[in-house]
Amino acid sequence: PRMAYAVALPLVVGTMGAVTQYLMTGKGPAELKDYFFPKTGNLDEQGRPERVSFPSYMKDVYHYFKAPLRTMANKLQPAASLLAEMLENRDFYGVKIHNEDDPLVQQALQVAQHVAKAFEPFGSRFYRQERALGESPLKAGLSFVGVTPAPRDVNKTPAEELASELSGEKLPKGARTKEQYHHAKVEQQLRRQIQLNPSGPWPGIRQALEAGEISAREARNIITTGREKPLERQIRALPVDQAIQVYDKANDEERKVIRFDILKKVRNFQRNASTDDKIRLQPVIQRFLQARAI
User: Fold this and answer.
1) Cis-peptide into 158, omega within 30 deg
2) Which of 115-119, 136-140, 235-239 has the highest mean pLDDT?
3) Fewest CB atoms within 10 A around its CB: which of 87, 90, 185, 292?
4) 121 pLDDT higher than 80
5) What would the mean pLDDT of 30-40 be, rounded to a whole number?
6) 97 close to 111: Cβ distance less than 8 angstroms
7) Contact status, residue 161 vs residue 170, Cβ threshold 8 Å
């Protein structure tokens, strides 16, 4: 029976994924992950195809394949992760758990709220997240039957994964206040509206401006970045040698998108870098220029 289950699990979940993607997009699976994390026809907050996952062990199989040690640690010691967050005073997203400037009683309440949130059912948590991104109650309510957003890594290409790792996207450098986190979420939601409808109109931008949630300068930046590919935004934050590492991992379509930005980085580096740095990175830059010429 155990062997039968192991064989049947990917077949049944894969069939469910294929049917789900066809019903939601009108297109069948085009790659392996479409079977287990089917597309919905929408875009996520990063502008990538939105995917969902089913309440099955295939999600765990994916996590064990991508990051076995981290997955085992999270499975065995969830309480240890919670304790580490409290000691560092920041959660997984780099948001401060309590404000050190508040009275002790208020800080204790903030810590208690964080602990309570850790035990919140996944269905409720994903419902709130999807509603905040503008999804309908019906679609967001799928989380209560186990249909939740797919892991973010599923949608990333090898180049995007490397860019995320190099830019420290998964590990915030410093803790943010709840106000800073809220501001970032507002920008993220507005950027998603632009990604869904690049030609406009964007009523959310006007409403956020009128409410004072964003400035005119931030609105212009949101519109600009909302029309870009995720990899374009990541490349700009990297030094020239790391940007070239990402270029080496990129596919042909991605290289067309990021080539010009990397070339600008190379020219600025050649103009402003010290002699020692030029000598050190000369082989890397030369390899990029030769690959670009082919």
Assistant:
1) no
2) 235-239
3) 87
4) no
5) 92
6) yes
7) no
Q: Which residue has the tokens 């501001």?
A: 183
3-class secondary structure, 176: strand
Burial of 55 (0-12, 13-18, 19+ CB in 10 A): middle
- What token pair was written down for 21? 């993607």
In sequence order, what DSSP letters do the residues of 107-150 get, joined into one string? HHHHHHHHHHHHTS-HHHHHHHHHHHTT--HHHHGGGGGT-EEP
What DSSP letter does each residue of 30-96 carry, written as one string? Answer: -SHHHHHS-EEEEE-TTSSEEEEE-SSTHHHHHHHHH-HHHHHHHHH-HHHHHHHHHHHT--TTSB-
The CA distances from residue 274 to 69, 198, 243, 278, 282, in Å, are 40, 41, 19, 6, 12
pLDDT at position 175 is: 55
User: What tokens appear for 83 in the block?
Assistant: 């304790």
Which residue bears the tokens 């956020």? 208
Antiparallel, parallel or unpaired: β 39-43 and 49-53: antiparallel
**pLDDT tens, residue by residue, 275-292:** 998 899 999 898 888 876
Q: Is 244 left (phi over 0), alpha (psi -120 to 50) or beta?
A: alpha
* Structure-model confidence comparison of residues 15 and 293, the more confident one: 15
**Residue 47 in this model has a pLDDT that exceeds 70:** no
Instruction: Please count the other Cβ atoms lying within 10 Å of the Cβ belonging to residue 32.
Output: 9
